[in-house]
Amino acid sequence: MARSEAYIVVLAERTSGVFRTEQASLAKVGVDAKKMAAEVDRLITEFTAADQQQEALKRQLKAQSELVASIKQRLAVTGSGYLDVGIGALGKDSSAADNLRRMRSDIEREIRSGKTAEEPAPPA
Question: What is the pLDDT averaged over residues 13-27?
């Protein structure tokens, strides 16, 4: 059965405490309680530091995911808006504007079908 972090840490802390309290009794039966308690304490410290780092990384990942989503939205709106500007500037009923609309439709169709070949950007 998997144990929770809280259970494991409390068990370790209490075990260390009992071993320190009962050090003399345990020594009589050949148990080096001081050494064992020190090892448990070291592992608790190591675990706590690693757990804190993991939680910090989770917060960082969440913040980065929110940033990526925000930039993706701005990119989508800006890219699509600029394409609309290009279509309007070329004249909505022109063949050049038809090519830009066709490009947008082709991209949507490629994405839906899973075929997304990168096309080189047109020369400036």
Answer: 97
Total domains in the chain come to 1
Task: Look at the pTM and tell me if it is higher than 0.70.
Answer: no
Domain membership flag for residue 81 = yes
Task: Give the residue ranges of DSSP H helices in 1-118.
Answer: 5-21, 23-28, 33-90, 95-113
Q: Is residue 119 part of a domain?
A: no
**What interhelical angle do 33-90 and 5-21 show, nearest 10?**
160
Dihedral sign from CA coordinates of 49, 55, 57, 60: negative
- Exposure of 19 by Cβ count < 10 A (0-12 exposed, 13-18 middle, 19+ buried)? buried
